[in-house]
User: What shape does this take?
Amino acid sequence: AQSVTQPDIHITVSEGASLELRCNYSYGATPYLFWYVQSPGQGLQLLLKYFSGDTLVQGIKGFEAEFKRSQSSFNLRKPSVHWSDAAEYFCAVGINDYKLSFGAGTTVTVRA
Amino acid sequence: DAGVIQSPRHEVTEMGQEVTLRCKPISGHNSLFWYRQTMMRGLELLIYFNNNVPIDDSGMPEDRFSAKMPNASFSTLKIQPSEPRDSAVYFCASSLAQMGYGYTFGSGTRLTVV
Assistant: This one.
């Protein structure tokens, strides 16, 4: 069955430091892959998506992600985090025409 | 574009009462989803509508839950009777049919059943 694993439950990073969030998926074909961010009390906002083409995808808020088929990974990165990046981040895979399967999420804390 | 609009933002109700959650999708989106988010189970798809027709309701927990989409601009999720284990954040999301577009989520309704 298709699944998404986010190995890190919680990450703490200093403001200005780089951030990388890991995502591994299990899927038989080339998947549609997404990263969403959820700020406290808010809904999920789409950061970026991948479904074909260049394996390095640029998103909003300065985020990027790289699809690596050989590793079944779609890791999210940001070179320099801001305090406003503190949130929960969800990786998701499209498992059919309409259904997304979400990972458990990674909470990011940014320290001054 | 106002995005996906959900109401109410917060709902506190007593066990056994009926609860109705409301959603207005983005104009032009033909797919609508109801998700439930809990600490224990994460994000779960409850039901999916396409062009106002329920396509997949396999995630609806039990008969106490029902969802309708009478037109392209409105959907409801009803729980009757409510139970404490229904306490969660319920999200509505809409999208264009093609998976590559992803979803746009509403801000959610935080339901507490006491």
User: Anything to note?
Assistant: The first strand of chain A starts at residue 3 and ends at 5. The CA atoms of residues 3 and 89 of chain A lie 16 Å apart. The interface with chain B takes residues 32, 34, 36, 41-46, 49, 51, 90, 94, 96-100, 102-105 of chain A (CB under 8 Å).
